[in-house]
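Can't attach files on this board, so I'm pasting raw text. These are the components:
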Amino acid sequence: MDVTRRKLLAVGGGSTAAAAFLAACGDDSGTTTATMDSMGSGGASETAEFGKGDIGILNYALTLEYLETAFYADVVKSGLFKGPELETIRQFGREEAEHVQALTAAVKQLGGKPAPEPKAKFPLESAKSVLELAGTVENLGAAAYLGQAANIKSPEVLASALAIHSVEGRHAAVLNTLLGEPITPDGAFAKPADVKTVLKSVEPFLVG
Amino acid sequence: MSAEQQTRSDQQTRSEILAKGALAVGSIYGATMVGPYVRRALAMSGSSDIDILNFALTLEYLEAKFYEEAKTRAKPSGELKSLVDLIASDEQQHVEALTATVKKLGGKPVMAPKFKFDYSGTGGFLKLAQTFEDTGVSAYNGAGPMIKSKEVLAAAGGIVQVEARHAAAIRLQNKEEPAPAAFDSPLAEKQVLKAVEPFIV
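---
Top answer:
Structure tokens for the assembled complex are below.
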């Protein structure tokens, strides 16, 4: 857990990709080989500290899905919601948990080591602030998948990522609707988010 | 961007993709999903990026026309009126972007077919809208892995996410679950065309 947090912080905190590589090599022997391979081939992919190639992308997505799953579980427990809104939150939480399972299986399928579940704590003050946070998380999650789609090499992994990406888009639209915000905040073409931006946004919720 | 990534689909033969795809997707969706996926992949794998873009353009023509017409015909009011206006504008922008991309790749954009939508009232409109949006999402998700150019794939991704957002918003209007499953399964071109054929005159 510590390791993941440090890795996330290293990237999210604005260090260079190379520094993140080094941090990853020093911190976690389990990912050293993959990281070294990436360095050797000269490819400084955005998700390299999560693993090589598609494994790195899947582990990056897995880390985000772990955070979403934990967030919704905490929200359900908070007692801030009831009725249809609680049902929506439960449903979204179940779907994020399915994404975690699918991504874990996909990493293993590719011969990789699934990223560990990060420790996280979310501010749960009021229903409104929680919905706002959920909206931020879902819009960011959709943008994160979009940011990686074109980097994925395997058509099978891409098919799976796309099947998840559009569900994150659906979640985001529902939360935007509940918040009275535009369902398509970027207009007719959704914008991607890069790894650094995404990790910086989730950094405040990581504990270690 | 590496040449390796640009030719992602070219590197593997169809059978390699199918064999490996069946395994990977089997692990993700469960074994029952493998058969349909293989058929879907088979249906799309011979297509060029221009073919795929023209296929998407046809769907966007349909949606653009459907929502443009609905502005008066479906008699939307209040919140729904804003939604219809928004979606109509988004779909029209998709038509323009796809047309421009086909031209940029040296292709010839397909012409808009003539459409006829059989529905009555706001309820009939919403029901059909849900079908079109959900089908659109699955169509893009099915085509995505067959796209060769990274730029085209990124652009298609930006569109499909918007279609998914439309789908969720329309489903909310229908009091249906906005995200009924954890995965938006892909549809092959043939299945999509079969779904939209009844509306092409």
